[in-house]
Amino acid sequence: MLWGMVFVAPLMLPDYPASVLTAGRYLAFGLLSIALARLDWGALKTLQRQDWIEAVKLSLIGNLLYYGLLAAAIQTSGAPVPTMLIGTLPVVIAVCSNLGDRSVAWIRLAPPLLLIAVGVGLVQYSELHAGAQAPSDWGSRMFGALLAIGAVACWTWYPIRNARWLQSHTNTNSSAWATAQGLTTLPLALILMLTLWLISLALPDTQLGRFDWPLGSTPLKYLGMMILIGLCASWLGTLLWNRSSQLLPTALGGQLIVFETLAALAYAYILRDEWPPLSAWLGIVFLLVGVVAAIRVFRRPVQPSPVPHA
């Protein structure tokens, strides 16, 4: 639900370039992580050099590159097409994860994946025909779709890689690892923001060049949104995801990310002051049934306690 917030931020700040939104979100994440580092200082000091290198890789691909591609896709082609493609993540992550570790038999995994796929299709069908704001130019839609596919690739790699690290470092708490990723994101976000500013000076006729540096046309709204998603979506959302990654098989966790799609959909309807159509409600039912079925597939049977002999 926290991650679903990031889908509406580009729609609430349409005049802000996607790259500026990305840099602002992760600058806020990084600065908040400095303050929060005191809470996990003991755990952070135990991280080795290779752990920090891993955090940099995760931050670069799973944070900056992913959100930059997603925000650009939403602003280029409107929300429906990118949301539809991002909505495939539960299936894509589950399939890729199960290819790697074969945590369950494919014959058992297929039914919940099919239910989730049908649910995603119904929800996105309703979005594509709901009159949501999107450019009529097919070139823009196709380019936005390509950007969204890149975002899917980034966020298929991220949870699998992140879960493997967490499951091999069970002594590291989820809060410390979320803060570590925030700390490594900060210099990357600073470099990105500085680069964007230099590009704006060199290319004054572009969208970046016309941007009202440093905080844009609605600075208080921009700062508020960046702090909100930096704290809630980036730090707290990552903390909760890290903890679930330690407790659940990755293929199951990947399917549970359908709730990000559902949350994003709910926020979009609230923003548009609309109720979902029947096809969206049917899609939501399929998604929820698919998630329940997935949980049952991964649930380990409880072994009966041995009865002591008299």
What is this structure, in a nutshell?
The protein is an all-alpha fold. It has one domain (3-298). The protein has helices at residues 9-12, 18-36, 41-45, 49-77, 80-86, 89-101, 106-128, 138-168, 174-202, 207-210, 219-247, 250-256, 258-272, 278-298.
SSE blueprint:
Elements: H1 9-12, H2 18-36, H3 41-45, H4 49-77, H5 80-86, H6 89-101, H7 106-128, H8 138-168, H9 174-202, H10 207-210, H11 219-247, H12 250-256, H13 258-272, H14 278-298
Name its key features.
310 residues; 0% strand; mainly alpha; single chain
Shape: globular
What is the straight-line distance between the termini? 53 Å
Biggest beta sheet summary? none
Approximate helicity band: over 70%
Spatial extent as radius of gyration: 21 Å
Order of helices and strands: HHHHHHHHHHHHHH
What features would you describe in this structure?
The protein is 76% helix and 0% strand. The chain is globular. It has 14 helices and no strands. It is mainly alpha-helical and 310 residues long. Helix 5 packs parallel to helix 8. The model has no long low-confidence stretch (mean pLDDT 82). The protein has one domain. The longest helix has 31 residues, at 138-168. The chain has helices at residues 9-12, 18-36, 41-45, 49-77, 80-86, 89-101, 106-128, 138-168, 174-202, 207-210, 219-247, 250-256, 258-272, 278-298.
